[in-house]
Batch of 2 targets.
Target 1
Amino acid sequence: MKDDAPLDPLDFFFRPRSVAVVGATPDRSKGGYAIIANLLEGFEGKVWPVNPGRREVLGVPCFPSVRELPEAPDLAVVFVPAERVPGVVRDCADKGVRAVLVESGGFAEVGERGAALQEEIAGTARRAGMRLWGPNCTGLVNSDPPLFTPFMRLPGMNMRVAQGNLAIVAQSGMMAAGFMIQYLLTGYFKVSKACAIGNKADVDETDVLRYLTGDRSTRAVVLYLESVSRGREFLRAVREATERMPVVVLKAGRSEQSKRAAASHTGSIAGDDGVAGGALRQAGALRVKDFGELMALGRAFAMHPEPFRLSTPEGNRVAVITVTGGGGVVLSDLLQDLGLRLADLTPSTLKRLQEEVFPEWMGPANPVDIWPAVEKRGLAALERSVEIVLADEGVDGLLLLPFASRMVRDYPFAALGETLRRWGKAAVSWVFGDRRFFEQFDRSMEDIGVPVFPDLSLCALAMHGYLHYARLRRRSSERWE
Amino acid sequence: MKDDAPLDPLDFFFRPRSVAVVGATPDRSKGGYAIIANLLEGFEGKVWPVNPGRREVLGVPCFPSVRELPEAPDLAVVFVPAERVPGVVRDCADKGVRAVLVESGGFAEVGERGAALQEEIAGTARRAGMRLWGPNCTGLVNSDPPLFTPFMRLPGMNMRVAQGNLAIVAQSGMMAAGFMIQYLLTGYFKVSKACAIGNKADVDETDVLRYLTGDRSTRAVVLYLESVSRGREFLRAVREATERMPVVVLKAGRSEQSKRAAASHTGSIAGDDGVAGGALRQAGALRVKDFGELMALGRAFAMHPEPFRLSTPEGNRVAVITVTGGGGVVLSDLLQDLGLRLADLTPSTLKRLQEEVFPEWMGPANPVDIWPAVEKRGLAALERSVEIVLADEGVDGLLLLPFASRMVRDYPFAALGETLRRWGKAAVSWVFGDRRFFEQFDRSMEDIGVPVFPDLSLCALAMHGYLHYARLRRRSSERWE
C-alpha cells in the first residue's frame, strides 16, 4: 500500500504489501499451485506459502500455518477444502491479518452444512474486524499495482493484464475467470480491476462499487450480479458511482426459473430486494441482458469514459452514415427499440451533402447512404459527409456503417479522428464485409477512439450507452448550476 | 439446364446454359469487368460479352449488342447506366432472351425519373413473357451448377462457394454482397443459392421463395426483406415453404423511421401489406431483428435442417449442462424471453446425476452445473451427464456451456455426437474462455452437428429456432394422420 493512499479497508485486498497463500502446493494440477505461481511471477510484495505438509513451495519457504508466519500479512488467500476453512480464518483473525480472501467452494452454494460453515467464517471475521472476500470465488485482479489471485494458472498473466480504466465485477467465479481470459488476454479492453465476489459472506457488490468509485484508476464499471445483498444501499452506491463514471449492470435472475438457478449456484437469494430494472435505471445504471452486451459496453466506456457533448435537448438524435442502405434500415429499427431517433438533418446539412458529396441524381437523407458517392468520389465522400453531419446541431451521435475490404488501407482514419475530436460527439462503428480486414479496421478505429462491433444491435446499444451517460451527466451538472 | 429438370421460368436465372454480359469491359475498376471475369472463372456454360466499344473482352469475342449474338442466351446480365437499360431490355425481348438480370442502379430508388425507367423495363419484359430480376441488385449465386453474377470481383469465388443446403435471399445489394464475403468465404455456412433481389420490378421474394421451395438442393431459407410486394401471396408462399423447410425472416421497417429509410433505399413502400410479425409467425416463419441473428439461424439450420425429435407435449423444455453457474442463470433468463422453459428433470435423472456424476456434497438441478464434477472426474463427467440428461423424457433440447481451454483437445466429441444422434434431440453450444481454442472447438462440434455461438443470446435463439420448427412440423404431420 502506498503511504499516500487513503486507508480504505478494501485496500488490503487490492493493494496488499504481503500475501499469504493457504493451500499453496507444488502440485501443478491444483489451484493452490496456480495461485502461488501467478503471485510469484507478478506480485511485487512478499509472498508466503502456507501448507503444513511442505517446507518450501516453488523455492519459497513454506509455513505450517498462518500463526507461524514471521508477521501478519495484509492479505491471506485461502484455497483449502471447505471444512478446514473455519480453522484457517480463526488463525488469520488471531494473527491480525487485515483481509481474507476465501476462494474455496463448498459453502452456501451446496446447502445447509455449507451455509453454516459460511456463517461461521463470516462471524469470525466480523468479530475480529477483519474483512472477508468470498467464499466460492476467484478473487481479484489489479493492474496497478499488479495482483492476480485466481486459481487458474496463466503464465505471465500479471504482465499481460494491460493497464486500463475499466473495472469488472462478477459474482460468478468461472464467468469472471472466463471474462478475464476471453476479453483481457485478447485486448478487447484494458482494466483497472477485475473482481469475482462469489458468495459475498462479507464483502459484497456495494462495498466493491463504493471502493471503485473512489479509485483513481477506475473510470467505468461493469457488473455481473446474480443477487443484490443490500438493495437500498446498492442503489445509493450506484447513484454515487454514476456521478463519477458510467455503470453497466447485467442482473441475472429476471425470471422465476433463473432465480431458482441462481439460488443453487451462489447460494444467494436472488430476490431483487427492490433492485428491479426500473430502480437500477433510475439510479443511473445501464442494464443489459447478455454477457456480450456487458462486455461491449465495457469496451465502449473503456475507450471513452467521459460524457460526450450533446447538441439537442432530447440528447437521443442519431445520424447514420452508411454504405449499405439495408444496414441503415435495420439499424433504424434497433435504434428505435432503445429509444433513439434518427436525427432530422437540417436543410443546410442536406444542401451541403447534395452539393459536396452526393451524385446529382440522389437526394440525401438520414440514414446517409454514401455508397453511390463513394463509387463516384472515393473515400473523400466518407470524410466529407462525416464533417458535414457532425456539424449539424440536430445530431447528438454518429453511427458509421462502412464496408471492410482492401480499401481499409486507404480509409481517412486520421482525418475522421480529428473531426470527431473537434465536435466531441459520440461515434460508434459497425464493420461488415471481408473478415480479413476486420482487425485492421478495428485497431485503426480504436486509435481514433471509435469502438467497432460486428453486430448492429451492439452498435445501437453502445450509442444508447454513450448518450444515456451524457444525458445523465448533463442533468446532474444542471442540478448544480 | 439439365434436361431432367422441371421447367420453371426461374431456372433461366439459376441454371442458364448461356449468359450474355451487357456492359462487359476489360477495365478492372468497373463492375462490368468483375461480372465477366467471375463468370469466365466459374460458370460452365457459354459466356458472351456485349459492348459496342470492344471487339473482345478478356480474350472472348465481344458483340456490339444482344441483337448480334449468335443465339438467344438463357440469361442476360445487364450492368450499364440506367438510361441505357430500357434499350438493352428491348433488345433482349426482341432476341428471345428468357431471363434478364439488371444489376444497374438509378431506378425507383432515386426518384420519379428512375421509377419511370423501372416501369418501362418491367413493361417490356412483361409483354415479351420474359422474366426480369432487379434492377439495383447484385443478382445471384448458385453453388450447383456454379453461377456467380455479382459485380464485385472475387477471384476464385465460384470454386470457393462451398456447396450446401441453405438459401439466402436479401433485398439489399451491398448487404447481400457483404453477407457472401463475410459468411460464405469464411465457411460460416454453406449455401445452395444466394439471391439479391433489389428493386423487384418483376421477380420478387414470393417468386424466389416458391422456386426455392421446389429446389432439391435447398433445405432451409433465410430472407432479409425491406418490403413485401404481395403480402397475402408471400404469406402463402411462406406457409408452403415451411412444410418442407425452416424459413427465417429479417423484415426491416418495423418502425416508422426505418420505413422512411427503406423508401429512399430500394424505392419500395415498406408498408407491411399485412405482413406484420404476427402474420409471419402464424405462417410458420421465425422472425429476427438483426443480421447476426439471421446468419446464426442460417448456420443452425444449414447444419440441421430436419426437425428434431420432441419429447414433451409443449416441445419447449430445455436442459442446460454448464461449467459456469452464472452462464446458466443468464441463459435461463434469455430462454424465458423466447418462451422456452428449463426442463424439470425427473427424479430418476436427478438420482443418476447424483450417483454417476456429481460429487456427494452437491445436489444436481437444471441448469446442470458440472464444474465440480469435472474437477473431480474430468471430462467423463460431461459425457456422462449428456447421456443421462438426453435420456430424460421431459427434455426437448440441450444447451451446452463448456469452457474453451487446452482441454478442448481431450473433449469427448465422438461420444457426444453418438449420444446426440441416438436421441435425435436438438443441441446447441456456447463457447467462452480462451479464444485460441474457439475455432478448434467450433469445428469439432460442427463435425458432430452442433452449432456453436459465442453469445448466449444466439444460443437461446438457435434452440428456439430448432424447437419452433420441430413443433411446426409435428403439428403439420398431425394434421395428416
Target 2
Amino acid sequence: MSPDLNLPVGLFDSGIGGLTVLHALRRRLPRENLLYLGDTARLPYGTKARDTIIRYSQRATQKLVECGVKMLVIACNTATSAALPTLRRQFAPLPVMGVVEPGAEAAVAASRNRRIVITATEATIAGGAYQEAIRRRCPDATVIGRACTLFVSLAEEGWTDGPIAEGVAARYLRDLFADGPERPDTLLLGCTHFPLFKDALRHVVGPDVHIVDSAATTAQAVETELRRLGLLRQAEEDGTSRFLVTDNVARFMRSGGYFLGEAPREDAVALVDL
Amino acid sequence: MSPDLNLPVGLFDSGIGGLTVLHALRRRLPRENLLYLGDTARLPYGTKARDTIIRYSQRATQKLVECGVKMLVIACNTATSAALPTLRRQFAPLPVMGVVEPGAEAAVAASRNRRIVITATEATIAGGAYQEAIRRRCPDATVIGRACTLFVSLAEEGWTDGPIAEGVAARYLRDLFADGPERPDTLLLGCTHFPLFKDALRHVVGPDVHIVDSAATTAQAVETELRRLGLLRQAEEDGTSRFLVTDNVARFMRSGGYFLGEAPREDAVALVDL
C-alpha cells in the first residue's frame, strides 16, 4: 500500500538551524505539508560524540514516524553525517534524505579548480562525511574542512550581519582564501545555520568564490526524490507547516523568526518529550 | 557520624564554565580534593526550560553523591537559579552551596550608587534569582539584568579577548553604561564563563565600574562554610582535582585548558552516563 500523499514530509534537526531547509522546501514545494521536529532540549548536536548523535537522531525519527510522515529529511548536517545509514536501515522502507549528498553534489558541480572549503560544526568536519562525498565524485579534489562553531550561536542570537559576523567569518576563514594559485573557488556551507551568513561570508571570500548553500540544494533533491517515488502531493491549496520542539517554545518562536523571515504561528508549535 | 574530611568537594556545571569556580577553589583551598562533573552532553543549560534544568541538576547531584562528596557546589548560575532549593531539600543533610548568594552579597558590598547590572545567560536573567538576592539585601537597589548569551560559546572557543570579544561585549552592554547620573557602578558576572571576559568587559564599562566575579566570591563562601562546619581537610599534601564529563572528553580537555590555564591531565578525566 502506498502512503497517503497528504502525509507531511518530516524534517528533524538538533534545534532551529534546519528551518533554513524547511524554508527552502516551503518555497520550492508550496503544496507539501511539512512537519518539523527541533530537538531544542539537547541542542547543539555539533559538539557531541557520534554515538550520542545517533541515539538522539533515532529518537527524533521515531517520534516523526509515530506522527506519520511519507519521507524523512535529516535537516541537520551533524545528524546526517553521523546517523543517515543507521536511520535508513532502521526505518526502511521510509525514504530518508540527508543534507550531505546534495551539498557535495552541488559543490563538485560548481568548482572549476577542484579546491573546495567546507564550513560546518566541529562534529561534521571531524566525521568526514562531506569530504568523503566530494572525493567519491571527484577523487582529485582538494577538500579543506574548517569548523566555524560560533556561527550557530550567532545565528540563534540573530546577529547574522554587521561587523561582529564579518569579524567571526574572517577569523575562521580569511587565511584559507588568501590570494595565490591554491585559492579555493568554492565554499560549501555544511551547516544549516550558515546560509544566514551569506553576506558576511561573501565579504570575506570575495565576489568570485561560489558559495554553495546545502539548504537550497537539499530542497531540490527532495523534490526530485518525491517526484521519482510518485509521492508529490496533489492538491489545489498550499500545504501547512507544523513544528514540534523538545524545549522552550518561546525561544524557538523568537529565533525561528530569524530563519523563516517571520515567527511560526503559535498554534502550529507544540512541545513534545522524546 | 561526621563525613570523611578527605572526601572531595563536589562541583557540577552544565559543561565547562564551572571550571572558573574550580580554579578559584583550587587556588584558595589547595589542600582540598575536588570532584567536578560537567554535563557536557546536555550543555548549555542556559537556554533550557526551568523544569528541564531541575531534572538535569538532580541527576548530576545524584552521581556526585554516589561517588562520595562532603559538600556540593552548584558551579553553574543557571542551575543554581533553578535548582538550589530542590537540591537542598532532596539531598539533606549534604551542605549545598550555589553561586548566586555569594555574587549578590559581593555586588551589594561593592556598589555605592545601588545601581547594579547583572550579565548572565537568558535562563538566569529570566529566573530572577540574582535580582531577588540583591533586593533582599538592598531593597532600594536598581537591578538591571542583561542576557549575554554569546559569551558562553566565545569562551568555549577560547576567543576571550581582542576585537570580537570587545565587539560582543559592547553590543550587549554599552547602552547600559552610557555617561549620565543613572550610570551603574557595579557589573556582576552572573555566569561562570564570564570571568574570562574581564578585560573585554573592562574595555566597555570603563575603569571606574566594579566588576564582581561570582567564581571568586563563591570560592570565598565555600571556604567560610567548610570552616564553619568543621569540614576543612587536614593534610600536608595538596589535594587532587578529578573530572567527570557526560560527553566528548577531547573537547573538554581542550576547552578546559582555556579555563584552567592548562588542560586537565588525561587520567583525571572520565566519561560517565547520567
